[in-house]
Amino acid sequence: MNLDYADLDPSKVLDALDAAGLRGDGRLLQLNSYENRVYLVHLEDGGAVVAKFYRPGRWTDEQLLEEHGFARDLAAAEVPIAAPLTLCAAGAVVSGEPPTLAHWQGLRFAVAPRQGGRAPELEDPEVLEALGRFIARIHRTGRERPFQHRPHWVGRAPGDVAREAVLASGLMLPDVRERWLSVVGRCLDAVQAAFDALPDLRVQRLHGDCHPGNLLWTPGGGPHFVDLDDAVTGPAVQDLWMLLSGDAAQARGQLACLLDGYEQVLDFDPRESRLIEPLRTLRMVHHSGWIAKRWDDPAFPVAFPWFGTPNYWQDQVALLAEQLEAMADAATDAPPPVWRDEGGADFDGDGFA
Fold this sequence. Notes:
By secondary structure, the chain is an alpha+beta fold. It is built from nine helices and ten strands. The protein folds into two domains: 5-113, Phosphorylase Kinase, domain 1, CATH 3.30.200; 125-330, Transferase(Phosphotransferase), domain 1 (Orthogonal Bundle), CATH 1.10.510. 39% of the residues lie in helices and 14% in strands.
């Protein structure tokens, strides 16, 4: 008998973990996550783990196992990461080599060690330099072999998928539909042109969602990531630009600090700085598509009450028009622009720690 994703409750979480060889002591806490269902679970042996139950239909088994494989590659290279644990078939069906993905009553889940920490001090140049070295270590491992099944953030394709999701949702207001479609179309043309201008661009396995909410800092231990749920193939700068903030001068200085650390470990193609604005544009369009696809989930109208309102779509048209100008400037090697937080910093908010 398959369990409905919406009916997952603490007792069923404990039953699922028991079926994978991990016996909880009854204490668990649901963690913040829009995309998946994530729980901190205390075990009878005194330890604690984080269990992530994946939203059905989002990823294939092959994509999830590639995420797990990347995490285990990083752990083997001694890069701090919450890599999934090996599970037992004590009632669940497990897959992967080693088995890290469990199937139980129609749901899929993985389990990782609990890791603590605090948000990094991104105003500190030394912290930024350390983050640059850390991300470069991730990318060094990422270059060792490619993803076969994970998405590619190269060119306009992610934006085209998001645009279709918005249209299919029926949440687009008729009076702004044509203006939004027009500006999105021009933006995605500009995104593709930016990638076409770098025909020999190197792409690799990436974290894919490298914003401060997915980073933890421990005193004496430095940074570590807690979530690879959005791992993709793409250019290195995708894992750098979301750490920038402030005005143009501040963003330029922060990028310089990140690259000072990055290039101590790995080479960086400076032309990739031209892709910051195209990648930001893709993320803005993707964020609208992500909410539209999830609108039937009761949590989303509560969390994003402004989505789909006339003001939302009008603001999106204006912001995307600004992105057209920003991408034109970026094509001429202009410095990083003023940071704009579009409310889409974290697509899933898993905190898989």
